Amino acid sequence: MRATVVTLMTVVAAASCSSPSAPSPTPLTIALQSSAWQTISDPQPLPLTNDAGALTFDFPDSGSMNYLFTPSPLTIVHGTLSVSVRVTTSGPVVFNSLDPQTTSCTIPSSVRPFIWANDNGNGEFDRWWSNPRALTLAAGTGTITVPLTADAWSSVNGKFGNADAPTKFAFDKALLNVSRFGLTFGGGCSFGHGINVRGGTATFSVTEYVIR
Question: What is residue 124's predicted lDDT score, i.e. its pLDDT?
Fold first, then answer.
């Protein structure tokens, strides 16, 4: 999950292989019912609720929120992914990354979309993160819009989907075998090693998660 952010293990095929067939556009709205979503977090699971149709949770003041995800209704996807969120805070909140920022690890405490593919695999090319498009965590609302193209996503080890022919093949294969959609929370040198809060409280809400 290491990669450079812009502000705001096996190779699956030889380089000579052609890419899998491109999927057709698939407009899709991901349901936000809290019962359909899961977390990787501490505590595990982190309580999820619905508030006026939004998927909502409170950031913990110890432990962390790392991953928020739901099964994909479709296996094959294509187009543009768009996620709208709202953050409500009370007090002088600090969003604390469990992977701290340093002079060489400068990703701010942030949230970004991710795709889990290949039956929720644990290989290098089974999880893909929006990169560099993300939202720095702060009070307010925001939308992350990212095309489902290889240049806009990076793998577990921070390799962009268009880095070389085998990686492009792996990214295209992932879009033909999507098993989960979600968001991850992180900073420092990682996209999903977790966030908690200090100095106040913060509620995070997903108001829309769509592919067009």
Answer: 97
